[in-house]
Amino acid sequence: MKKCIYLIIFLSFSHYGFANELYPKDINVLVEQIELCQHFLGEISGEPALDQARNLNADLEKYCTNLDQKRDKLREKYRHFPHIINKLNSYGKCLDDCQPSDAKDEKRIQIPKLCEKYTVSMYRPYEPIIINNQNIIIFTIKGDSSSHVIQNETLELLRINCSTGDTESLGLLMSQDVNKGAVLTAVMHDNKLFIIHYHSPPSGFGYMYANYRIYEVLAYSISKNTWVLDNKLTEYFGEGGDVINYNASDEASKQNLKFIFPYKTKQDIIEGLSNQQFDVYNKLANKEHVTGTIVRKTKLQEVANYFDDEKRYLIKGDRVNIIDTSAGWLLVEYNNPKKGIIKGWVMCVDTSICNKE
Questions:
Q1: Left if phi > 0, otherwise alpha if psi is -120 to 50, otherwise beta: which for 212?
Q2: Where are the domains of the chain?
Q3: Beta-strand relationship, 214-223 and 226-229
Q4: Which residue has the higher pLDDT, 77 or 202?
């Protein structure tokens, strides 16, 4: 194992990895070391490697913990440089990647034997979703798979009929201009498929979001034996991040998030399909008139999951018409006696819909 660690450290200063003039030398060195760690594990990936990995576990854990500690220090050092922070956060914790432990092995799902040949590839970075004994959905890297560095590739969702070999693309999880991020989980519920994933914020907006993550939920429905993106349900769950109170005067106050994206787990999705906001979603879909009351002073935002220095606001007791709902936010209309109809997004918890105080 020590030879492997020495090899990784030695190669991290060679031609492997990612060097970019946009980043300081210490950032490039750390990125190279992380990618070499991932490269090393990729080379030993597969069932026979699991026993080998268990034997290497202790040294790997120590090495990867050291990389994580280095990254934490560099985050603090370059905290005022969003593009550097985004780069550091485009990688998961090294310890997660570098430690294929017994616990991870126990959680591996059972792939139908008919489908095994379609799931063996280091360029399919997440566990497949089992539909039945001959149909699965896999995540695959779309683009140039010759590189071990897959952070900037696009992640594609494919349905495979394992008995016929037929494939169907369910779309790309990310557009070409941002990092693919990572899939948090896939949820099957009420004959619908939900994919929860995250990616880095657009350039210039990273400072607003905790962990520099934007979350998104994609909802799919079955139509004529084909998985189809349900645009309305996808918009209901929406996308966004945990918004930092970046205007706070001290670091402790900044840790009190202004907003937490509500859909990150399977349980979040299930609750999101039965809560008050989903009731509003269904009523609006049926063209029903929905109203609510503001329960505390709140600013009207131009878009959901974003806090700008808006001058427009509503106060406790204001009655509003609800036009749309997405990601824990409501699009409302208020009839201002002096200015007429004004419209904007407010957090659902600031209304009687989600807050019965």
A1: left
A2: 2-101, 106-275, 277-350
A3: antiparallel
A4: 77
Is pLDDT of 233 > 80?
A: yes
Angle at 18 between CA 16 and CA 21, to 5 degrees: 130
Structure tokens at 263: 């859909």
Closest to 321 (Cα-Cα) out of 329, 330, 312? 330
pLDDT band per the 50, 70, 90 thresholds, residue 203? low
* Distances 353 to 2, 276, 345, 346, 348 between C-alpha atoms, Å: 59, 6, 14, 11, 7
Domain covering 277-350, topology: SH3 type barrels. (2.30.30)
Q: Give the integer Cα–Cα distance in Å for 217 and 227.
A: 15
pLDDT band of residue 328 (cuts 50, 70, 90) is: very high
| Calpha distance 330→192 (Å, rounded) | 24
Are 241 and 213 within 8 A, CB to CB? Answer: yes
What is the rounded average pLDDT for all residues in the chain?
72
Q: Are the beta carbons of 190 and 201 closer than 8 angstroms?
A: no
**Residue 353 near residue 276, CB atoms below 8 Å:** yes
